[in-house]
Amino acid sequence: MKSLEYVILLNTKLAITHTTKRSMLKSVIYKLGQHPKLSLKRFFIGLGLFALSLLAIAYGYYQHAWVQLIGLGLLAPALFFSGWGYVGIFANRFSQVIVTMHPDDRSADNGKTK
Predict the structure, then answer these.
(1) Can you tell me the distance from the alpha carbon of 107 to that of 95, in angstroms, rounded to the nearest whole number?
(2) What are the CA-CA distances from residue 76 to residues 19, 46, 55, 71 (Å)?
(3) Measured between alpha carbons, how far is 53 from 71 in angstroms, rounded to an integer?
(4) Residue pLDDT, tens place only, 23-58
(5) Is 84 a member of any domain?
(6) Within a domain: residue 113?
(7) Residue 16 forms part of a structural domain
(8) Is the separation of the CB atoms in 67 and 53 below 8 Å?
(9) Which residue would you say has higher pLDDT here, 113 or 65?
(10) Structure confidence at residue 19 (pLDDT)
(11) Sequential DSSP letters for 64-107
(12) Which domain holds residue 69?
């Protein structure tokens, strides 16, 4: 009988740990996808900076080499902003999937845009 109690206790601890990790992941996803318009704006800023950096690198290849350095300098913030925006857009879409799959687990923040 003692081993059965241990198995039940062990399964309960695993379930609590699994539920806690799942709810932590949900809260992170809900937080990242909380402002989809801002995420889209960040993505477009990054996309614009990326286009400018490509133009500067291409121009520097044919005309002035120092313009390539400006293009390379713009490339890092471009990738950062576009990545940050894309993660926010993906998190917003994924949070909508989570709510559809588990409608009883809705977060207080889900669906609110500012």
Answers:
(1) 10
(2) 37, 10, 15, 9
(3) 4
(4) 788 888 888 888 889 999 999 999 999 999 999 999
(5) yes
(6) no
(7) yes
(8) no
(9) 65
(10) 52
(11) -HHHHHHHHHHHHHHHHHHHHHHHHHHHHHHHHHHHHH-GGG--
(12) 2-105
- Flag whether 95 is in a domain: yes
Residue with tokens 């902003």: 81
* DSSP H or E segment with residue 43: helix 36-62
Other beta carbons less than 10 A from residue 7's beta carbon: 10
DSSP code, position 108: S
- Look up residue 22 and give its amino acid: R
Amino acid at 79: L
Structure tokens at 100: 């559809």
Domain count of the chain?
A: 1
Q: In this structure, are residues 34 and 17 in contact, taking their beta carbons and an 8 Å threshold?
A: no
pTM comes to 0.66
Distance in angstroms (rounded) separating the CA atoms of residues 91 and 72: 29
Greater model confidence, 105 or 22: 22
Q: What is the pLDDT of residue 100?
A: 82
CA 60, CA 54: separation in Å to the nearest integer? Answer: 10
